Each structure stands twice: as structure tokens, then as C-alpha cells.
Amino acid sequence: MTSLIQNYSTDTLSQLVATHAHPLTGANDDYDTLLDFIGDAHVVLLGEASHGSEEFYRERARITQRLITEKHFTALAVEADWPDAWRVNHFLHGYGHDGNARVALDGFRRFPYWMWRNAPVEDFLTWLKTSNKRQPSTTLMTSFFGLDLYSLCTSMQEVLRYLDNADPPAAKIARARYACLDHFNKEPQLYGHMTSLGLTKSCEDGVMAQLQDLFQRSACAVLETGESDMDALFHAQQNARLVVSAENYYRTMFYGRISSWNLRDQHMADTLGFIANHLTLTTGAPPKIVIWAHNSHIGDARATDLGLQGELSLGQIAREKYGLDAVLIGFTTYQGNVTAARDWDAPAENMTIRHAQPNSYEAIMHGTGIPNFVLPMRDNPELRTALSEHRLSRAIGVIYRPATERQSHYFYVQLARQFDAIIHCDNTHALKPLDAPHRWSAGEVPGTFPIGV
């Protein structure tokens, strides 16, 4: 960031925020102000300050329910793998054999499984299934999509499954192209490492050729063969796109964090556009889409020190593309517990969150004395100025390291430029996985507490 000079004290900012905050009490009208603020926007991005806080999921669900019922949003796109989310989408539309939301979520078994296999998501999908049943037309049903790119192996299998049914000769060609990745199905990171060292050839040309063939099939399917299942073709095409992005992601991940991060968020943005185009084609009108993802994705990276290092974000791209038609809403918390792991692929645990750093934006929100509130900022010049100072803000992903929290989980942001509005939940609780391990229920204080920054 260009300057870390702060013209306002933390107490002054807390008082200012308290003046403009709208308390959340659990009442039905909690989000009236926020819905007025959203207005006629077609894209609403709802964040989270961690991947394991119960309140973030519950409040996003409450907002999304109102957007669906009152503002006619018809799609939810989340930070999740496409094939697993597609299974949920089939359940919501009455296809497949899944009898309830918990079974429909069974595809989410890859670490971090708790991000989507959890009680609030199960409750929300159960509500959404009932809501969809009430719709007089399938075009008014709400769909559920994944935005992420980690499902390399599963997406290849989905492409082949589609072609086995639709065009067996084409499936044979696809298998030959994807065979380049066969040895790395279980360890795509190994593929990236070996290509970076020049120890194995790149599979880029083959997966790109397969993507091009599937998109050429789009015109042929409609104009020549009369293929009617456009959703199935759409699913196959997106999986082929995902294979291209994932191959590129794993091939570039060893060249630096920024390049792989940017590729991932650009894939999310491209997928969002792909979803919007498909829904426009199938429903005859531009869709309204809600997005659930981490603050680091849905916030505008240009308002962070990471943005100055070259990092971009889904929220930034959405603002550049949609302008005021996209609304970016972040979430913050000061203290509580979180479901997270100590390392990648380690067990999920119920961990105590340290109190937020002094002078951070989280400390400012805590200083209001209001337990939970929503704060629109974009249209308030006073808040825009005061909350655009460069201050620390916390981000906890699927891994939480309290011993190095300052270095691992904080970065400088200009809050009112990063988001259009924020929702603060002062004391948050650990998100309960549907398959909670023993250590999750322990609710233990981290082993490094109280040592560390």
C-alpha cells in the first residue's frame, strides 16, 4: 500500500461505525437495509473471513433466501468443485437419486470437506429444494454451481462419461488426449512439479484440443444432430474448461503464488460468465447470481497490499465487468472458535481464534459494542473516507496457525474500497461438519496458546 499513515484513532472509527451500523437481532427485517442497498444488482458476492465459522454460513443463507424470494435470484455459485456442485444442482432440480440434501452433499469428500458438508449448508439446501418445488416453471428454479478448479481427475471422468453416451468415437479420442495425465490423477501437484523441472512433457496441447472439440460440438449438437440436453453438454463443456484451467494451474503453481492465485480467480470469473451465458440462453433473460466465497476472493484485490504485488481477485474482475451491478459484501469477526486444520490434509479441529490485532479493522468493529451488524459503505462518503485507511484485516482459510497469526493471517486493506458493505459477527462459533471428527468436538485451545504473535 502507498501509505500506512492513520488519521483516525481506533476509538473514533468505532464510534463512527456504531453511528451507521444496522444491528442484526435475528428478526425477519434484519437485512431490509442491505436489500435496499443491493437494489437491482444482478451479481451479489457474499464473503467470509474464514472457511469455518458458523455465523458466516448462516447469515449468507439468510441473505440469499431473501434475494431468491424477494429479488428473484436464480443461481448460487460457490467456491467449490464443479462436479460436486453439479450433483447438488441435480438434486435441487429433481434429478438423480439423492433423497435429501445430506446425501446430495456426499460428493464433497476432498479436503477441506467441511466447507460444504456442514449443517448450515444442509439446512439451506433443504430450504432451497422446497422453494424450487413451489416454482411454476423450471426457469424460475434456483441452480447451484461450483466455481473452483481443483477437480482435475473427476472433471476428466465427467467429460468421458458424457462422450461415452453421446459420441463413443469422440470419447476414444478424448481418452487418448487425457492419457497424458493418467499417471498423475491422484497427485496433480506431482505433474506440476515434474513439468516445472522438465521431467515430463506438458499435457497442455491435448487438453486444449479436447476443449475446442467440445465447444465445436455445441453448434453441431444443436444444428445438425438435434441434441436436446443442453444442460448435459454445458456440464461436459465446463468440465473440459476446468481440465484446461487445472492443468495450467498445477503446471504454474511452482512458479509463484501470485501466478497460480490469479489463474484460479480468473477461472472463477470466467466460470461465472459461462454460467450467466448458459442461463441467459436457457431462460431467455439475464440471470441474477449470488456468489459465496472467501473474502480474499470476493473483495477487490486492488484495495489490498496483495493487489500491489500483482494479485487479482474475483471481486475485482466482477467490478471491472459489471460496475455497480455487482455488490461486494465482506464478513468480519473479532473472536470465537473456528473449524480449521493445522496443515493441509490434516484433521479438522475446533480451534480458538485469538482476539483480533489492536488497530485492525476487526478491532474497530469490536469497539462499537454491537455484537452483530451490517454496515453499507459504498454510498456513504464519510465512511468511505474513514474506512479507506490502510489497516490490518484478518483472513483465515482452511488452515489456522495461531502461533504465527500476524504473519500468516493478516494483510493490509482499505476496507471501504475492498467491499461495498460488511457484516460483522463479533463472536463466532466453529462450523459443524456433517462428519465431525473427534478432535473437532473437543473445542480445544490451540497448543501454542498464548505464545505467538
Set out the fold topology.
Elements: H1 10-20, E1 22-23, H2 32-38, E2 43-46, H3 54-71, E3 75-81, H4 82-92, H5 101-104, H6 119-133, E4 143-148, H7 152-166, H8 168-178, H9 188-196, H10 204-225, H11 230-252, H12 257-283, E5 289-292, H13 295-298, H14 305-308, H15 314-322, E6 326-332, E7 335-340, E8 349-353, H16 361-366, E9 372-376, H17 381-386, E10 391-394, H18 405-409, E11 410-413, H19 415-418, E12 421-425, E13 427-428, H20 438-442
Parallel strand pairs: 2-5, 2-6, 3-4, 3-5, 6-12, 7-13
Antiparallel strand pairs: 1-9, 7-8, 9-12, 10-11
Helix pairs in contact: 3-6, 7-8, 7-11, 8-10, 9-11, 10-11, 11-12
Quote the beta fraction: 5-15%
Q: What general form does the structure show?
A: globular
CATH C-level name of the largest domain? Alpha Beta
Tell me the helix content: 40-55%
- How would you characterize the largest beta sheet? 8 strands, mixed
CATH superfamily of the largest domain: EreA-like (biosynthetic domain)
CATH architecture designation of the largest domain: 3-Layer(aba) Sandwich
What is the tally of beta strands? 13
Structural class: alpha/beta
CA radius of gyration: 22 Å
